[in-house]
Amino acid sequence: MRHTIPLLLFSTCLSHAADIIIYGATPGGIASAISAAKSGSTVTVVEPGKQVGGLVTSGLSHTDFHSFESLSGSFADFAARVEAHYVKTYGKDSQQVKDCFRGTFAEPKVNRLVLEQMLAEQKGITIVKGAHLSDVTVKDGRIVSASFTSGDATTTHDGKVFIDATYEGDLMAKAGVAFHVGREGRAEFNESLAPEQGDKQLQAYNFRLIMTPDPANRVPAEKPPGYRREDFVDLLPALDSGKIKKLFDYPRDCIFKAQTPPLPNNKYDINDVSGGFIRLSLPGKNAGWPEGTREERKAIFAEHLRDQVGMIYFLQNDDSVPAKFRDEARSWGFCKDEFTDNGHLPPELYVREARRMMGVHVFSQKDSERPADDARAPLFTDTIAMGDYGNNCHGTFHEGPRFGGQHTGEFYHPVPPYQIPYGVLLPKTISNLLVPVAVSSTHVGFCALRLEPIWMSLGQAAGYAASLAAKDGTDVQKVPVQAIQKLLIADKSALTYFSDLPLDSPDFAAVQWWAAKGGFHGVEPWGKTLRGKKIHGQYNEAAPGHEAKLDEPLTPELKKQWLALAKSINAPGAEAAAAATTRIAFIKAIHPQP
Questions:
Q1: Which long-range contacts (CB under 8 A, 24 or more apart) does 392-395 make?
Q2: Bridging pattern class, strands 418-421 and 383-387
Q3: 3-class state of residue 315 by DSSP
Q4: Cα separation of 437 and 456, whole Å?
């Protein structure tokens, strides 16, 4: 049965073994553990923090995606469970159920509860909390073991396959895997969004604070350690400029982006204002985080906390703040019932980008941009996940004063839904390591992948791949991608985006299989629109040009195209497919039966 190893309180060195060792109980790590356990592998997840869930349980509660059709697999399961929690707790017609936005918006404590329940359902998963990676033993291109420390205790974990699910890529770096920190130059991968010359800049960090205007549940900001009033007096002319209409608002003309719709129970996920006059994110202040020691990261964490909580404290308490802003600031507070063991503040900083592996496939800008004659982004027949968000960067450098200056390196680049190839998980050198979070990508490419629903899909794929490799004694680079795809499809994880193929469709498996072969690329022409009609904010209806249209008649042109593809992959049932009159009849005729 699954169990949790408590923190050890004495100096010792213990050794444990499991089929799969995962470092980082981020959503990507949790998805990896679940899919590996479903495959019958024993799994140990080692988490350096006090709780599981990464940013999803540490304030990032307003999930980033564009259309519901992009959500599948582990994340769709998670969201459905969150919604079911609110239905059970408050009733199906409650405001809480409405506000959870089909389970994608939730209070951090609910996200944590649901993720813990998902882990507990799987036999063979062991969770170790509060243990930090100290050493990795590599022999003949394979990781033999990893050692972790907690206080004076050291524990060594032997495994057949290892998964680095940390935001920082700490395990892969210790294992000697090639990685990059910073931005590539424009010519290196032919990326229009990249700077002319490469540099060490990386996307800025901030906290995802959870706050509320509810008097019954709000807690005022306390003066953070190291607070200095002089750090915030320059807020005053910024407030007098007229560029800030309210302190808490959405989406702009404010300091604190209180994202709407709100979370259940009148809570708000507070984020950086994209392109704003005053920012929460602090580019440059995070430069030492990716490769920093624990002490260096603690200092960077403290600096961000001092800045962001200090700003709220100043606005709530300093007599020099104009009354209308001070009164508004006092009408908001941290949530009394969130992060109760951490002063109502998120325990993790929003690490948007750190190390990025340089692996078998380096995902770059071109991988999520459609060709000129197709509605779809480039085809990857080794696809193991998909997304629809686009390249999104909150800035990598700040020019001018802290309050009223300008971020540079910022971009928000819309793209069509895109596939993600297996190679982004694979290092070039280590044969038993998978990296589903600090994935192989350029800075620009990573800015399309750095989203928790996508990380869960990548983690789900990594877990299945790790289990196959562990069972067969195969290098992860040599695991047949078709076997991974089959497991993912059976687990309702979509490999290709469709606007009219729900996860519970009886045709889901056949269509996803055919799409991974390339059946739906080059079928729909570019229709001049990348995203569907806006629902609210960043959320849209399904992307156009991505329908399966399964019941439509099979045109002679498409039948010819599909028959040629079927022949090239030696698909069975070609004779029956040649007689098909609809798209779905053709696909069913050639789909290999389980």
A1: 392/64, 392/447, 392/448, 392/450, 393/193, 393/203, 393/443, 393/444, 393/447, 394/203, 394/204, 394/272, 394/274, 394/281, 394/283, 394/352, 395/203, 395/204, 395/279, 395/281, 395/283
A2: antiparallel
A3: helix
A4: 9
Q: What is the pLDDT along the chain (594 residues), one digit of tens a residue?
A: 344 544 433 334 577 999 999 999 999 999 999 999 999 999 999 999 999 999 999 999 999 999 999 999 999 999 999 999 999 999 999 999 999 999 999 999 999 999 999 999 999 999 999 999 999 999 999 999 999 999 999 999 999 999 999 999 999 999 999 999 999 999 999 999 999 999 999 999 999 999 999 999 999 999 999 999 999 999 999 999 999 999 999 999 999 999 999 999 999 999 999 999 999 999 999 999 999 999 999 999 999 999 999 999 999 999 999 999 999 999 999 999 999 999 999 999 999 999 999 999 999 999 999 888 899 999 999 999 999 999 999 999 999 999 999 999 999 999 999 999 999 999 999 999 999 999 999 999 999 999 999 999 999 999 999 999 999 999 999 999 999 999 999 999 999 999 999 999 999 999 999 999 999 999 999 888 899 999 999 999 999 999 999 999 999 999 999 999 999 999 988 889 999 999 999 999 999 976
Question: Distance between CA atoms of 466 and 480, rounded to whole angstroms?
Answer: 12
Q: For residue 520, give the amino acid letter.
A: F
Under 8 Å between Cβ of 451 and 60: no
* E-only strand ranges, 30-109: 43-47
Q: In this structure, are residues 530 and 417 in contact, taking their beta carbons and an 8 Å threshold?
A: no
d(CA 394, CA 262): 22
- CA-to-CA distance for 125 and 119, rounded, in angstroms? 7
Helix residue ranges, H only, 190-341: 235-240, 294-317, 323-330
Q: Which residue has the tokens 């394979």?
A: 142
Structure tokens, 502: 């729900």
Q: What is the DSSP letter of 11?
A: -
Nearest to 160 by CA among 438, 433, 478: 433
Threshold 0.70, pTM exceeds: yes
Residues in the chain: 594
Cα(278)–Cα(268) distance, integer angstroms: 19
Q: How far apart are CA 176 and CA 47, in angstroms?
A: 21
Going by C-beta distance under 8 Å and a sequence separation of 6 or more, which residues neighbour residue 198?
182, 183, 184, 185, 188
Backbone torsions φ then ψ of 272, nearest 5 degrees:
-65, 140
The rounded distance, in Å, linking the Cα atoms of 315 and 565 is 63
